[in-house]
Design brief:
The protein folds into 3 domains: 6-125, Beta-Lactamase (2-Layer Sandwich); 127-210; 212-346, Heat Shock Protein 90 (2-Layer Sandwich). α8 (219-228) crosses α9. 45% of the residues lie in helices and 22% in strands. The longest helix has 47 residues, at 127-173. The strands form 3 sheets. A 5-stranded antiparallel beta sheet has the order 2-1-5-4-3. A 5-stranded mixed beta sheet has the order 7-9-10-12-11, with helices on one face. With 346 residues, the chain is an alpha+beta fold. The two termini are 30 Å apart.
Amino acid sequence: MLNYEPVGVAIFGVGVLYIVDDQFVALPAFWRNEVIDGINEPILVFDKEDNIREYNTAAIRHFPALEHAAGQPLGTAFPSLAAELNDESDLVEVDCEDRTQYYTIERQPLTIEATQSGKVVILSDVTLIEKQRRKLQRQNEQFDDFAEAITHELRNTLAIASGYLDVVGTEIAEDNRSPSVDDCRHVADALGRMERVTTDLSRLARYGQTLDNTETCDLQEIVNRGWEATDIDDMFLSIETDGSVQGDDVRLAELFRNGFEFMCAMNATIVSVSLDAGEIVIWSDGDVISPDEIERALNYGEAVPSAETGMSLPNVQMIARSHGWKMTVETASDCASRIYLCIETE
């Protein structure tokens, strides 16, 4: 098997001149058998009008739509690949049937007497490496979020408890007065919040890691489990789907629990869950989030839109990311708050 090396490309360029120069209409058998088909990476050769003049068997193996495409523009035979190549990026993402593949691109001009007669494009499959890189990137982002959550939530709660303890200490010191019931209650509330935050952070550490294995999850059952885990009495739940998704059932129940608690904190009276075209939609009639605050609302360490919402919305995003999903928050035209979880399957 021949490997791609700069010298090899130079030699290869000599051979492909036979098919891009108008004086030649066929590729010599030697170059077809020993060079082009001997390279285990997809190779495409184009003439000066950007029509496909030749490709190797590896190209057909990776992109079956290219078979019998000689003489056609790439945009006709494989529009998505053509769009990626036109982007001039060194890394392209190509949807191939039921999977997504990643390739690095090497472009080489083909010239005859200083005149460009075409080009050769060599694609190297780096799908496994790129998927691993993206997984590590997601995990790094999740660790950053986790550190931010610890810094903000625990320090704030400790500051509140310390402040009220100072008040209690002052009241005891002055004329031996007993501390007020309200001040003691504030301290107890702050410590209770710290306990809840610690529990949330523990869940975040467990559920924020990227999933290695998924299973088919009945969405209606998962939504009900998330609802039952809340302590909400004054909000109505409507489930408008009987579909399923690929995921981790425990994490998904936690996702919905956080989503419902966020909607409740936004004064919602009804929350609805639906699944349409691979998109989970959680909708409520609660207070809106202004467009310029949406990004901040998704960040740990931001009391947006209010302190009452806590970490619930960032937790939803964190768990969605651990599934490889993307979540956006939008405000509908009827002034209702909506959360969209856009599920991207690979």
